[in-house]
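quick q for whoever's on today - can somebody do inverse folding on this one?? i tried earlier but teh output was garbage lol. tokens:
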């Protein structure tokens, strides 16, 4: 069952994608000739790439690396337990450079999601607080309110 929050989030996302596509086609039309078709094709290509590879792009921009279970077994276990409690698939877990405690969730849907956290969060915070941050990020995944590392929270 879809919640109101999920419906509003999906509607906003589709509206933004449609607006950006319309802007690209308008620029192509203003340039005239066959540019309208070139810009329409580029809009479709960029939308497909963004949809299919948004998680990989965001993780690469954040310079995130997979967090191994050997390095932080308690974090991996916390993600597994919290994901089960939220009734979503367990996301991939990454760590990225940075002293400031921070984290983000990314991906096109819960089945293709990932959570990345900074070194500062991983090493500088008690596990109870890390669990709280992870629960927050998993709520974003559950509600399909998934962002890139550049988005403000």
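ok took a stab at it. sequence:
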């Amino acid at each position: 069952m879809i919640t109101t929050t999920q419906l509003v989030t999906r509607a906003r996302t589709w509206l933004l994608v449609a607006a950006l596509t319309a802007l690209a086609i308008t620029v192509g039309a203003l340039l005239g000739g066959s540019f309208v078709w070139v810009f329409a094709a580029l809009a479709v290509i960029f939308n497909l790439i963004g949809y299919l590879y948004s998680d990989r792009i965001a993780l690469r921009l954040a310079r995130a690396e997979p967090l191994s279970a050997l390095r932080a077994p308690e974090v991996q276990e916390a993600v597994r337990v919290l994901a089960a409690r939220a009734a979503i698939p367990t996301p991939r877990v990454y760590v990225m450079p940075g002293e400031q405690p921070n984290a983000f969730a990314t991906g096109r849907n819960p089945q293709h999601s990932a959570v990345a956290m900074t070194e500062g969060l991983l090493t500088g915070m008690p596990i109870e607080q890390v669990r709280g941050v992870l629960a927050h990020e998993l709520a974003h995944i559950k509600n399909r309110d998934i962002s890139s590392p550049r988005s403000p929270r």
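fwiw Residues 4-53 form one domain. also Confidence is low (pLDDT under 50) at residues 148-153. so keep that in mind when u check it
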